[in-house]
Amino acid sequence: MSDYNEVSKRAYELWENAGKPDGKDNEFWLQAEKEVHQGSNGQTQTSGRSLQSPRGARPVGNRTQ
User: What's the rounded Cα separation, in Å, for the pair 41 and 21?
Assistant: First the structure.
């Protein structure tokens, strides 16, 4: 699975667990990105690159509204 897909999946999980609040997409994306890129010793595994959340995008996945 690509980093983008892993981050997207985790961001969606965080969003669901928080009760699916509106307007916090970027917050969940950044938290998911941090979690996905942390190694077992807490060090970042990437070379400092950051995945950019699509502007205004919500985490992907099955969701009902």
Answer: 31
